[in-house]
Specification:
The protein has two domains: about 1-155, Aspartate Aminotransferase, domain 2, CATH 3.40.640.10; about 165-290, Aspartate Aminotransferase, domain 1, CATH 3.90.1150. It contains nine helices and eleven strands. The protein has helices spanning about 10-20, 40-45, 70-75, 95-100, 150-185, 210-220, 240-245, 250-255, 265-290, and strands at about 1-5, 25-30, 30-35, 35, 50-55, 80-85, 105, 120, 190, 200-205, 255-260. Strands 2-1-5-6-7-8 form a six-stranded mixed β-sheet, with helices on both faces. A three-stranded antiparallel β-sheet has the order 9-10-11. It has a two-stranded antiparallel sheet with strand order 3-4. Helix 6 (about 210-220) packs across helix 9. The longest helix is centred in the middle third of the chain and has 39 residues, at about 150-185. It catalyses: (sulfur carrier)-H + L-cysteine = (sulfur carrier)-SH + L-alanine. Belongs to the class-V pyridoxal-phosphate-dependent aminotransferase family. NifS/IscS subfamily. Its cofactor is pyridoxal 5'-phosphate. This is Cysteine desulfurase DndA.
């Protein structure tokens, strides 16, 4: 059995790929070129034993929108494509057809204040086995009593997000363009990790030579919440896997800031962020020169 996955994917995918490898399943990283899966190279990696490809729709750290449909077309119908669409609902359609996915996963906490619930959308003809057995809930795939209240809130948030998606995408795009320009004008030696296909509400910066964990703390004191990378990997000393996979630049991967915003964020808040970031970077740069 052979499985491929995106090396920049969320740790929940990457770590489970490692578990599969421990069980004797062959795993390989999908090839990346110019912030896209290199489908020409992928075609050469596929084997008769290949059964699954797993990747995200939108990179949670960088906002890169991956070419999932190209990947599915390259794979063909006999190999299943799993797409983690957790970061997609604010700006993308959330259907299997849109992503070319056989299996699609969603996370309630990424669309609102709904934690403890998610969704796996899959064709009923796909053979799947439960991790444990019980009362037979969820087609027998996930035993245990469901939470109707959480499911109702999740569905409501997805509906609200879907209705506001087009307007938010346009507004977030304009906000991102101004935010990027203002940062470039006020802060030297800053790099943006992005692609031609980009979620407009996620901005990933690299500030080589600066301690971005310290910058996060300074910004927190100013009342602004940002991160260096995925919350699940904040203790990693290796830097951002996502930025390293996209750029191949270790210095950039070790000095990242991830900024994102939602439908309730106003332009004034981003302007305040730029000012606070410029002050914080100037303070760190001055400290580094001592």
């Amino acid at each position: 059995m052979h499985v491929l996955y995106l090396p920049s994917a969320h740790t929940s995918i990457v770590e489970n790929m490692k578990l599969l490898h421990e069980e004797g399943i062959a795993i390989e990283e999908l090839p990346i070129r110019d912030a896209r899966v290199d489908c020409e190279a992928l075609a050469k990696m596929l084997r008769k034993e290949t059964v699954l490809v797993s990747m995200d729709a939108v990179c949670g750290e960088t906002g890169v929108i991956w070419n999932t449909r190209d990947v599915k077309q390259t794979m063909g119908a006999d190999i299943f494509l799993h797409v983690d669409a957790s970061q997609a609902p604010l700006t993308e359609k959330i259907t299997r057809a849109h992503f070319g996915a056989d299996l699609l996963t969603l996370d309630g906490s990424k669309v609102g204040d709904v934690r403890g619930i998610g969704a796996l959308i899959a064709r009923s003809t796909i053979p799947m086995s439960p991790l444990y057995r019980g009362g037979g809930q969820e087609r027998g795939l996930r035993a245990g009593s469901e939470s109707p209240e959480l499911a109702q809130k999740f569905a409501a948030m997805l509906s609200v997000t879907t209705q506001g998606r087009v307007a938010f995408r346009a507004r977030a795009g304009a906000m991102r363009e101004k935010l990027t320009a203002d940062i470039a004008a006020m802060i030297p030696d800053v790099h943006v990790t992005e692609s031609d296909a980009q979620a407009p509400h996620i901005l990933n910066l690299s500030l080589p030579g600066r301690d971005t964990d310290y910058l996060v703390a300074l910004l927190d004191e100013a009342g602004l919440a940002v991160s260096t990378r995925s919350a699940c990997e904040t203790d990693s000393v290796a830097g951002s896997r996502a930025v390293l996979a996209l750029t191949g630049d270790r210095a950039r991967a070790l000095a990242t800031l991830r900024i994102s915003w939602g439908p309730q964020t106003r332009a004034a808040s981003l302007a305040r962020f730029v000012s606070a970031l410029a002050r914080s970077v100037a303070f760190v740069d001055k400290s580094n020169r001592r």
